Amino acid sequence: MENSNSHQHEDLHIYQIIDANLDRAREGLRVLEDWARFGLGNEDFVIRTKNFRQILGKNHAEIYKKSRNFIEDQSKGLSHFEQNNRKNPEEIICSNSARIQEALRVIEEFSRGHNKNLSKIASEIRYEIYTLEVDLLKFNTRKRAELIIRENNLYFVTDQKNKLIEIIEKILSGGVKLIQHRFKEGNDIKHLQEAIEIKRLCKKYNSLFIVNDRIDIALASDADGIHLGQGDIDIVTARKLLGHSKIIGISANNSNDINNAIKNGCDYIGIGPVFKTTTKKNKKPLGVEKIKNLTKDLNLPWFAIGGINKKNISSLKGQGIKKVAVISGLLNSEDPKEEAIIILKELSYEN
Questions:
Q1: Which is more confident, 88 or 273?
Q2: How far from 208 is each of 125, 170, 205, 296, 306, CA to CA, in Å?
Q3: How far apart are CA 86 and CA 282, in angstroms?
Q4: What is the 3-state secondary structure (H, E, C) of 169-195?
Q5: Residues 169 and 156: beta-carbon distance below 8 Å
Q6: CA 253, CA 290: separation in Å to the nearest integer?
Q7: Where are the beta strands (DSSP E) in 49-112?
Q8: Whole-number pLDDT of residue 9
Q9: What residues have CB less than 8 Å from 268, skipping those under 6 apart?
Q10: What single-letter DSSP state applies at residue 284?
């Protein structure tokens, strides 16, 4: 009789463990589901997470729920200080994915002896969550990048310059959220080191780091994307190499190239040169009117580039050009931070 009571007592403890972890897993799934719905607007992720939550709910037997009244949980409400350090969606995705995975592992182990079906379900969903976490993080990264491109009107493009890293940090501290780095002199070891350092700075200032042309360095430095010229690798091939979490921008100066870029899935377009520029000496300026004509029906984010500085931005805005890429206007300034602030104010000013 005593042995029977002992087994019953042990079973109730196991039921409590399963009950608590079914709750944990479903709570974590609800966090991911709500971010997929409201933060990412992605129906596929919502369906996937909701499906897992419903399966676990269907298998949350009454015997598990009743066990929670058997012995009071002495650790109820216990928290950890690290829970207060989750400051962005990526950290929330990771922490809740881990919560789900851990809970499912506990369910898998403790239900194996008396509910093999639940143990199997927990195991299968746990492996699915590993994939779901990666997919959510990739999609979240892309959505963040798209938002930054859409909401920010000043794009800084680098050129060869002494103390370039210091200048870039000053420009970032001035509020610029889009940095494209172009490689000129030096070897690839130096280029990669430079890219990694700029990526670190962009992360510090919550800005995007785009690499010009070099997909290998973009991947190696974990850049947010790549910018391609008309003579570079095509967009379709670039997408295969980069995946769908990275941004692809392209330079174009005629309607045919613009239409092809859109058809092939680019995320933004750089159009120019608007004015004469020392960076592209051999290219004839398009002029404001031609750019307006090229972009009149363009819904994709686009940036005018070429000879743009704080002196002519006001006139561009007056012509309806709101997004600009600046090179020497920031790079050669005596105070890049202050120059960035002035240009951003000019771009945000409503004519």
A1: 273
A2: 34, 15, 9, 27, 21
A3: 50
A4: HHHHHCCCCEEEECCCCCCHHHHHHHH
A5: no
A6: 9
A7: none
A8: 62
A9: 149, 247, 249, 300, 301, 302, 303
A10: P
- Domains observed in the chain: 2-145 (1.20.1260), 152-348 (3.20.20.70)
Q: Of 183, 162, 139, 112, give the one whose Cα is nearest residue 39.
A: 139
Encoded amino acid at 25, one letter:
A
Q: 137 pLDDT exceeds 90?
A: yes
126 or 278: whose pLDDT is higher? 126
Mean pLDDT of 29-35: 97
Contact 210, 249 (CB under 8 A): yes
Q: Is 7 exposed, middle or buried (0-12, 13-18, 19+ CB in 10 A)?
A: exposed
Q: 345 is written with which tokens? A: 């104010």
Nearest to 101 by CA among 61, 141, 131, 62: 131
pTM exceeding 0.70: yes
pLDDT for 184-239, tens place per residue? Answer: 778 999 999 999 999 999 999 999 999 999 999 999 999 999 999 999 999 999 99
The single residue listed with the structure tokens 């995320």 is: 267
Tell me the two tokens of residue 166: 């210091």
Q: How far apart are CA 228 and CA 287, in angstroms?
A: 22
Distances from the Cα of 189 to the Cα of 108, 196, 225, angstroms: 48, 11, 20
- The string over 252-276, giving b where at least 16 C-beta atoms fall within 10 Å of a residue's C-beta and e elsewhere, is bbeeebbebbbeeebbbbbbbbbbe
d(CA 251, CA 261): 9
User: What is the separation of C-alpha 79 from the centre of its chain, rounded to a whole number of angstroms?
Assistant: 29
Pick from 273, 315, 311: nearest CA to 294: 273
pLDDT beyond 50 at 332: yes
Answer yes or no: are the C-beta atoms of 164 and 312 closer than 8 Å: no
pLDDT in tens, 86-133: 568 999 999 999 999 999 999 999 999 889 999 999 999 999 999 999
Placement of tokens 């240009």 in the chain: 343
Whether the CB-CB separation of 280 and 258 falls below 8 Å is answered with no
More reliable by pLDDT, 315 or 217: 217
Cα gap 188→158, rounded to integer Å: 17
